[in-house]
Amino acid sequence: MSHRASTWLPVRFVRSYPFDLAAASVAAAAGYLLVTRLGAGNELRLFATVPLVLFFPGYALVSVLFPADKRSANSAAATTAEARPRGIDTIERMGLAFVMSLAIIPVIVLVLPVTDWGLAVQPIAAALALVTVVFAQLAVIRRVRTPDAERFTVAPITRLGRLRRTGITTSSVVLVLAIGAAVGALLVGALFPVAAGGYSELALYSEDEDGELVTGDLPNEVSPGTSIPVTIEIENHERHEQAYTVVVQQQTLEDGDVVERTELQRFNTTVADGATARGERSVTPTAGADETVRISVLLYHDEPPATPTNENAAAETHFWVTVTDG
């Protein structure tokens, strides 16, 4: 007899597993895969990002907080406490899911930079998917422990019939319109950005002992005539193919002002829309012994002006180096 009970227990649990929480968990995991595997300009990636960021984490958290459905105001109750609704209806649940998702995002953004993963697309997507799955499983436990008569369930036909009988309240209509307007504004901003919103990114890397590209690890002292190997990376987000000119300039500063400029290198490249170009260069400072100079890498669209500066560049990055006496 005990063997039969243990055999049917998993089957009974699977049959009672809430469909909406299972769907949210699977969709969050699928969203993570799409966001991390597809390119930045892919439309499918965008449509996977929106619910992963703005709905699934908040819906799972709301399900933990409110495992019960909203009671009818006409339902009888023995006490005043029982007469109060212990849950929320579907429309309120959707609205709170959006709000809770917006509250979860800042927490993830604050926590990730202090971890080994850092703040990047893949860790953020992984964190959102993990939060959704964990909260969803906690919500399953709370919902299964809730009595059947009070438990929130996803039954569209039943709820449609209930709406026909009870009608739609003004607050529900306002909530639906507010959610639709917010999500619509985000989609419009992502799908139809303003024409002047394009940009280019410039980064400077060096290799560590393991051959990995890292930032902030360039030498701050070199002997005269020593070349500094650097990797220059350009990301094109201009929404069209762009021709670039990169100027590597040695600058001598006094009291924060540039008093002398020496061009060390200049090269041209063309980068496709949404693509990244990366190249290795060797920079050799020409400063005198015991002189500290700033090596600036200046990025320009097409051709640079007659006097390239950090201020008139489309993007710039730099590092400081002191030329020792050998």
Give your account of this protein's structure.
- The protein has 326 residues and is α+β, with helices and mostly antiparallel strands.
- It folds into 2 domains: 191 residues, no CATH class; 126 residues, Immunoglobulins (Immunoglobulin-like).
- The chain is built from 9 helices and 9 strands.
- A 5-stranded mixed beta sheet has the order 3-9-8-5-6, with no helix packed on it. The protein has a 4-stranded antiparallel beta sheet with strand order 2-1-4-7, with no helix packed on it.
- Strand 5 and strand 6 form a beta hairpin.
Per-chain topology:
Elements: H1 2-16, H2 19-37, H3 43-54, H4 56-65, H5 80-83, H6 90-111, H7 121-144, H8 156-166, H9 170-191, E1 199-207, E2 213-214, E3 221-222, E4 228-237, E5 242-254, E6 257-271, E7 276-283, E8 291-301, E9 315-323
Parallel strand pairs: 3-9
Antiparallel strand pairs: 1-2, 1-4, 4-7, 5-6, 5-8, 8-9
Helix pairs in contact: 2-3, 2-4, 2-7, 3-9, 4-6, 4-7, 6-9
